[in-house]
Amino acid sequence: MAGRALTYAAAVIVLTCTAHAFHTSPHDPIIAQVTDHRNNHLIGTPTEHRFTEFIQEHGKQYNSREEYLHRLGVFSKNLLRAAEHQLLDPTAVHGVTPFSDLSEEEFESMYLGVKAGGVNPRNSGVGTAAPKDVRDLPEDFDWRDKGAVTEVKTQGACGACWAFSTTGVLEGANFIATGKLRNLSEQQLVDCDHTCDPSEKDACDSGCSGGLMTNAYGYLMKTGGIQTEESYPYTGKAGECRFDPEKIAVKVANFTNIPADEDQMAAYLVNHGPLAVGLNAVFMQTYIGGVSCPLICSKKRVNHGVLIVGYGGKGFSILRLGNKPYWIIKNSWGKRWGENGYYKLCRGSGMCGMNTMGITTVNGRSRHTVAAGINLAAGNGTKKGSTVFFFLAS
Ligand SMILES: *[C@@H]1O[C@H](CO)[C@@H](O)[C@H](O)[C@H]1NC(C)=O
Ligand SMILES: *[C@@H]1O[C@H](CO)[C@@H](O)[C@H](O)[C@H]1NC(C)=O
Ligand SMILES: *[C@@H]1O[C@H](CO)[C@@H](O)[C@H](O)[C@H]1NC(C)=O
């Protein structure tokens, strides 16, 4: 594969994420007026009762009666949408979430929108790792049990999921290499990393407006490494780069994409630590818990970057289909979203595009890679003849 031209078959996008943000954008007063009238009928209904509970639970503040009525209308629609998602995704629980006062359009445009058309996110010089033996993998596996996963973080009103996904992989790899768990700095990536995909100049890392984990690894290889969260704390806003090479906590030597086959992903996960992936977040706005396994979830709209930390062998059951396996996914929307900040997604069918972000054609043969499927082998693993990449922690 090395040295040959790659033909990219699929569009790749910059992940613009979703965020855990509740400050709603100033909305159009005309829309508010119209909706005010429409929403008067909701006053005093059980829907309004649930809305006031929601406001209390999430500490929401609306500045005017108009805003209140408008958000009540949106909330009411989201109750319907959650019910629809419930029908489409019966093995998960959908309902009121911290995002229930944002319309689907707001949720998408503020936190999900596709920023750039592009091609494969594979950085030049970074190949796809060799397939692994998938026999004898444990039925259940969870890096959290081994202490390799930091606490769930909160990206806030900033489309920086790509940075959180990136640090999650490094935190895991660093733990495996050194036995120490450290929070690593998303803010360094948000402020300093403006790397563009070598094959797609519009697919650039741009702070709170999206990015790609593969770009971020390219940046980290170039710049030398990443600081800790403590030495470069998260602000949730893009600012001036304050990276200090003296304070590098973890160095990145190289990274690789891994085969997108979900058995391969499991093998890499078990052997080398948490994996960064992109997926379509459409069902996540209403997700409360359980294993999400929607009947329909477009694989083409990959818009959110997350971290796979484990999997379960038999998590849930669809009528007559028996127990099905699932992935355990760390999100960056705080602990009050999902299952204490985590998402479970059914495993084995590329659900919501979780393994399809970087479909490529190599030498005319169709080949799948996990788009941001970055994998860093621990410690001094310089295994000859394989594409296991090592990762140096200082
Ligand atoms: C990273 O790995 C790729 C793929 O094997 C290799 O071509 C490249 O030279 C490596 N880069 C560095 C900096 O080691
Ligand atoms: C990571 O940061 C969080 C929030 O500040 C803190 O509670 C946690 O203990 C930190 N974890 C590590 C391993 O330092
Ligand atoms: C690094 O290499 C040494 C010597 O070959 C070995 O004993 C050690 O287990 C390796 N460490 C890791 C994390 O692979």
Describe this structure as you would to a colleague.
With 394 residues, the protein is α+β, with helices and mostly antiparallel strands. The chain folds into two domains: 8-18 and 116-393, Cathepsin B, Chain A (Alpha-Beta Complex), CATH 3.90.70; 29-110, Helix Hairpins (Orthogonal Bundle). It has helices at residues 29-39, 46-58, 65-88, 104-111, 161-178, 186-192, 213-223, 262-272; strands at residues 6-8, 92-94, 141-142, 196-197, 200-204, 250-251, 275-279, 287-292, 304-318, 322-330, 342-346, 358-362, 365-369, 392-393. One 2-acetamido-2-deoxy-beta-D-glucopyranose (NAG) binds next to loops.
Label the structural class: alpha+beta
CATH superfamily of the largest domain: Cysteine proteinases
How many domains? The number is 2
Low-pLDDT windows of residues: 1-12, 19-32, 113-125, 357-394
Annotated CATH topology of the largest domain: Cathepsin B, Chain A
Strand fraction band? 15-25%
Task: Tell me the CATH architecture of the largest domain.
Answer: Alpha-Beta Complex
Helix proportion = 25-40%
- The pLDDT mean sits at 75
Family: Belongs to the peptidase C1 family.
Signal peptide: 1-21
Protein name: Cysteine proteinase
GO molecular function: cysteine-type peptidase activity
